[in-house]
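Hi V.,

You were right to ask for the full record rather than a summary. Here it is.
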Amino acid sequence: MKAKNISLVLIDFVLLSLAILLAFRIRFPDFAALPNFLAFKKYFVFFILIKICSYYLFGLYGGIWRYAGLSEAFSVLYAVTAGTLASISFIFFTQVPFVFKMPLVPRSVILIDWFFNLLFIGSVRFVPRIRKDLWLKPASVAKRLLIVGAGDTGELVIREIARHPELGYKPVGFIDDDPEKRGRRIHNLKVLGTREDIPLIIERENIVEIIIAIPAASGRIIREIVNYCQKVKVELKIVPEIPKILQGGVSFADLRSVKPEDLLGREMVEINSEDARIFLQNKVILVTGAGGSIGSEICRQVSGFGPARLIMLDHNENDVYFIEIDLKRNYPVLQFRTVIGDIKDPM
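Predicted structure:
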């Protein structure tokens, strides 16, 4: 056994001794059970070694506890409970005549002892995890992050962030359209609102990055989220597809920017660039719905093929303004015009 594990065994021995002493003291504050305890004292070490053996069998001396989570918490619960049951069995069988004739320990003492065992043993194991989560955060300014989707994938994103504090993220909260989740918490992060509230929440909470954690979202939902995010300056990323999540969970290496196929809800069709250039070059092109997610992407794609002029039609002046800024920055020689209106308007 490694030196670190031997130290942990010694710590457990001390804590288990303290637990049984406290159990007797709490159950009999007036020292009425002192004779009973003194008779029990000679079996004290054997009583504790049974529990330590149980902890060893349940792997409590072989874990890397700074990564401890829910499964490790259950391991502690099972190990402590099994150790207590084994101790009770030991007490029961020593009551058989001509064996040990150990004095009977009150059941209430056993129950109190189990509680302190769980508290002490669990606390010692989870100290490294608490230090990792609370005390060893990077000193640099963290990027304030908003997660769209308060489901299983969103929870996986939070856990991935907790495992990698060096990434410099500070999750602020969740967005979810389920009204039942509004105001509820996941890992102490509140569901702040629905996707319609995204612009307001970004401004209020100084969000700099958004992660869409809804792998099964339709193209329509992704387009709406992108439209809301376009109204304010914020970086937008999306988690991988469901098959990738099932294969290996969520990793920040898999996060990517939103692509056109996400907006369409289907795989992107590859086009022949040369044929598109011949068709579009030196022609006047009209794009309706130019301010939307798909329309704005079409405008960007068309602009790269050298049209004589690009006319962008949309009823939302604010959305068209953003695509104007984008085109001026990336295609400074492009001739374009914006028209605010509706295709149903009479000519």
